[in-house]
Request: fold
Amino acid sequence: MRSSQQYIIESVDRWLSQSQASWVCTILKTWGSSPRPVGAMLACNLEGELIGSLSGGCIEEDFLEQLRDGSLKARYDSEGGPFVIQYGVTEAEQARLKLPCGGQLHVLLEYIDDTETNRKVFEELAQALRSHRCVSRRVDLSSGEISIDEHDLQAKQAVEMIDGAMLHRLSPVYRLLLLGAGDVARYVAEMALALDYDVTLCDPRPKYLDHWEVPGVEVSSRLPDDLVRERFSNSYSGVVALAHDPRVDDMALMEALKTDAFYVGAMGSERTSAARRERLPQLGLSEAEIDTLHAPIGYQIGSKTPAEIAISVMAEITAVRHGRRA
Reply:
């Protein structure tokens, strides 16, 4: 599983390794209703192979048309570096590009030549994202020179303009570790995959994994605390305890609540959750660490079935990921 940004960076890295130049487009600003958020990317090689998106398709078609007629490269050569195209400035253009009413996009266009410096930078960017590290791409707006910046990576803005440069923060794919091979975990896994999470299901209990399978989900019978320490301890990881068995759930929570995981939650009733909170201090967790636990898990939507519970769980995880809480 790869984030869309990782897929684009890896594609540009691959093209450069094949001595192919490419274009990289990044959304800098949006007004009104926008099809894609600030920081969204599109990349295209000179043969017209296109990765990513900026809109529902019309801006991409406009871009490809300008690529074919040579006007993009002519403007890049004329300006001597990256340049900004403003889409949707007039109502007529909004209609032509099928942008929502009032929608505008400012897009930075970069021509990425197959120089040794560019090859090295994109190789390092791709490796950082594969290693599940957040990294920033700094683009000098006058020269087009690209470098890697690893400062202030937890800032909320996807794109910032600083001292004549664009700082573009790139995120690795988000991961979820699910505990407990049951029906709720099956539905949570399917929904998480649809939301582009990298999903692992862990259950160390004998025979519980014998008939549990969701295509695209890694399955593990290892001890959950080991998995948390090794792979699910950063701010792009979430841990979701669904086993309803303290031997499994508490083992994972014991480690996860000490990490930077963006979400840690456990399924259970109010009574079960209260009992869990009384147990957790005995596992060496502080009151502040226990307070970060989401339990009972999910939004209260009157859910009864496993599928309904999964909806409430993924709704809460989505809200927390985007900095919102009930």
Notes: The first strand starts at residue 22 and ends at 31. Residues 306-321 form the longest helix (16 residues). The chain is about 35% helix and 25% strand.
